[in-house]
Amino acid sequence: MNSKTAKESFIVMTELVLPNDTNVFGNLMGGRLMYWMDIASALAAGKHCNSPVVTASVDNISFESSIKLGNVVHIEAKVTRAFNSSMEVHMKVWGEDTVQQYRYKSNEAYYTFVALDPNRRPKPVPQLIPETEEEQKLFEGALRRRQLRLILGGKMKPHDAAELKALFAGE
Ligand SMILES: CC(C)(COP(=O)(O)OP(=O)(O)OC[C@H]1O[C@@H](n2cnc3c(N)ncnc32)[C@H](O)[C@@H]1OP(=O)(O)O)[C@@H](O)C(=O)NCCC(=O)NCCS
């Protein structure tokens, strides 16, 4: 299976915040944004592996700034690393006021997807080649983030998470 570059998976999803997307303060609801992020990151993962994918996990998300009614949401999604059947996708979310003409960052997040075969079993995915300095940094960190989420999901023993342990031990 041929490896693919990170930029080949890159997608940008754009949405307009309408009244039905907002809370009582006129800001985009977190749940609606996470739904859009799920779609954007699934598109990036699917673009990398050319297979149907399912969401395996969503890392913790902090909302740095709220996105206002009438503003535009831009979700940039790119695969950071592919493992066997799973892929980690990194997203940057921006709000844009098109009237005042400025952009602001809302949040960043990582979602993990698994590629499935026609029998709905996990299937191998192409390896990912990071090219830029930022892609290389995300690629290296992906191993530790994977270990943390597998420990939290009860799929890995902390003892086996060598890279994560090294981080805490300052090695
Ligand atoms: C995700 C899913 C396919 C994993 O299947 P599984 O039978 O547990 O398979 P495995 O244990 O062999 O794991 C397969 C891959 O999933 C990854 N995975 C499993 N649980 C995970 C978790 N909590 N977080 C991140 N990755 C996880 C494994 O690391 C493995 O990746 P790898 O092949 O790259 O090493 C399965 O649990 C599933 O279908 N879940 C429901 C998905 C869904 O419906 N999502 C929408 C929200 S409801």
TrEMBL record:
Please name the source species: Lacibacter luteus
* N-terminal signal peptide: none
Single GO biological process annotation from the record: fatty acid catabolic process
Family annotation (InterPro entries) = Cytosol_ACT (IPR040170), HOTDOG_ACOT (IPR033120), HotDog_dom_sf (IPR029069), Thioestr_dom (IPR006683)
Q: One Pfam family from the UniProt entry?
A: 4HBT
Q: Which GO terms describe its molecular function?
A: long-chain fatty acyl-CoA hydrolase activity
A single cellular component GO annotation = cytosol
Q: Which UniProt keywords apply?
A: Hydrolase
PROSITE patterns registered for this protein in UniProt: HOTDOG_ACOT
Q: Where is the HotDog ACOT-type domain?
A: 7-119
- Give the protein family: Belongs to the acyl coenzyme A hydrolase family.
**Higher taxonomy:** Bacteria, Pseudomonadati, Bacteroidota, Chitinophagia, Chitinophagales
* The name this protein goes by in its record: Acyl-CoA thioesterase
